[in-house]
Write a structure and sequence with these properties.
This protein is an alpha/beta fold and 460 residues long. The chain folds into two domains: 252 residues, TIM Barrel (Alpha-Beta Barrel), CATH 3.20.20; 189 residues, TIM Barrel. The chain contains 15 helices and 17 strands. It has an eight-stranded parallel sheet. It has a seven-stranded mixed sheet with strand order 9-10-13-14-15-16-17, covered by helices on one side. A two-stranded antiparallel ribbon has the order 11-12. A hairpin with a 2-residue loop joins strand 11 and strand 12. The structure holds iron/sulfur cluster (SF4). Iron/sulfur cluster binds next to loops.
Length: 460
């Protein structure tokens, strides 16, 4: 497990007596990478020193809004120099803090705009501190976007659901830490459940904001594990899933290493093993992410080649830990490779695995025969993407490649599947074009199968 703490202040005096040991404890706990964040000129310099001393520590340079008035011309020059250092991966923390207004708001805004401009000139992301100032922050960011692109993360996110939506729409990442473990943080836990996988970062803000079991005491990066366990619970995944997803995001935003970006034809999420056996598909869905962001829960599903049946069977047998089911899924239509599905499902079923197929339901059209009897006894469940209430909506959303009324063919596939496979489900996405009531009526009333709704943009 590789966790990345994207916000710590290990240069602070709280660590003067045991800095080295703290860093060692973090690595031992699985927190393999740390961004040490500058809050003023001195801490930005010290952050860089730490980053130069430890391979797994990276630095950022910035001025906390409380220190906004310290932005002299000399300080500007020094920040310009620091930010260009290779191990400085971000500009921050900078932002607005209207909670106590330690610096006048006008100065906070002037300083923030300087750092935004610096981040843009150096092509480095921002680490944004915002407390009780979200509306003004969004106004400033909207104005700044007119001058050119911006990237960054909202650190220790404390905004509302609406603020989250706006930040995501603007392309920002959202970072959350120990407060998620506090009994009264119900609103934050709801926010955490809504952050898209691709924008989620985690942090400690050490030495501040220790998680519940150390609350009120000094925080340190090794305690990130406690928050990560809570994130896993909220998002219904494992801590390993949280580590993989957030370390990949930290790599994408800050360019730090740690993520495994190799193409995966076998991947595990929760207690299910998924088989990504092809990137080909007979649909070309408007919502499909396979050509834009082929990442699912931190795994890269863009194949450089299609795996053989032998590789798939051996790969599943080599997986460790509890396995509830093996699922043919991935970014592509598995039943295009029907012979491989049959061979792998037979071999794994013989070993006692439960087998499921997620499919677009085109297989009988593609193979010009009824393939479903051949799955009898080797497949336990099949989920078919019904996706719409009628053929017009289906064609508009899924843009099927086969000719004719493909929607009717999918419905026939579901009817036929019920004769050969013990559990058959239809799925659909909660898109505005989809009429939920009528789609449910088709699945449950007409076809007699349960419908499972999937969130748009949430895969895996
Ligand atoms: S059926 Fe799935 S893999 Fe195929 S285009 Fe649609 S979303 Fe993508």
């Amino acid at each position: 497990m590789t966790l990345t703490d994207t916000h710590a202040h290990l240069d602070f005096e709280e660590f003067d007596n045991d800095r080295e040991l703290t860093i060692k404890r973090s690595s031992e706990a699985g927190v393999s990478y740390i961004i040490n964040v500058g809050a003023d000129l001195e801490s930005s310099r010290k952050s860089l020193e730490l980053a130069k001393k430890y391979d797994n520590i990276f630095a950022s340079s910035g001025l906390h809004p409380h220190e906004a008035q310290a932005l002299t011309d000399q300080a500007k020059n020094e920040f310009e120099r620091l930010v260009k250092e290779p191990k400085v991966v971000a500009v921050g923390e900078v932002g607005l803090d209207f909670h106590r207004n330690v610096s006048p708001q006008k100065d906070q805004e002037t300083t923030l705009r300087f750092f935004i401009s610096l981040a843009r000139r150096c092509s480095k992301p921002l680490i944004i501190h915002t407390r009780e100032a979200f509306p003004r922050m969004f106004d400033i960011l909207n104005e700044e976007f007119l001058k050119g692109p911006l990237r960054g993360a909202f650190h220790c996110f404390s905004g509302s659901m609406r603020d989250l939506e706006l930040a995501i729409k603007m392309g920002f990442y959202i970072s959350v830490g120990g407060p998620v473990t506090y009994p009264k943080s119900e609103a934050l836990r709801k926010i955490v459940g809504e952050i898209p996988d691709s924008r989620f970062l985690i942090e400690t803000d050490s030495p501040y904001l220790a998680p519940q079991s150390h609350r009120g005491k000094r925080n340190e990066p090794s305690y990130l594990v406690e928050a990560a366990e809570e994130f896993a619970r909220i998002r219904n995944v494992t801590i390993e899933d949280i580590a993989r997803i957030t370390t990949l995001n930290a790599g994408n935003l800050f360019g730090i290493p740690g993520a495994d970006r190799s193409p995966r034809f076998i991947y595990k999420i929760r207690n299910s093993v998924y088989l990504n056996i092809t990137n080909e598909c007979t649909n070309n869905c408007t919502f499909c992410l396979r050509f834009t962001d082929p990442t699912v829960k931190g795994y890269n599903l863009k194949l450089d080649r299609e795996p053989t049946a032998d590789e798939l069977v051996k790969g599943v047998l080599a997986e460790s830990g509890k396995i509830d089911e093996v699922v043919f899924c991935g970014y592509g239509e598995p039943l295009i490779r029907f012979d491989v599905v049959k061979e792998v499902a037979s071999a794994l079923k013989a070993k006692g695995y439960r087998i499921r197929i997620d499919t677009n339901g085109h297989a009988n059209l593609v193979h010009h025969r009824n393939i479903l009897p051949e799955l009898k006894g080797i497949v336990d469940a099949i989920c078919v993407s019904l996706n719409a209430q009628d053929v017009v909506t289906y064609d508009e959303l899924c843009r099927p490649k086969p000719k004719g009324n493909v929607y009717e063919a999918v419905k026939d596939f579901i009817r036929e599947a019920k004769l050969w496979i013990p559990k058959v489900e239809a799925t659909a996405l909660d898109l505005p074009q989809v009429d939920r009531e009528n789609t449910r009526r088709v699945a449950e009333g007409e076809l007699g199968v349960r419908i499972r709704w999937r969130k748009y943009n949430e895969v895996g």
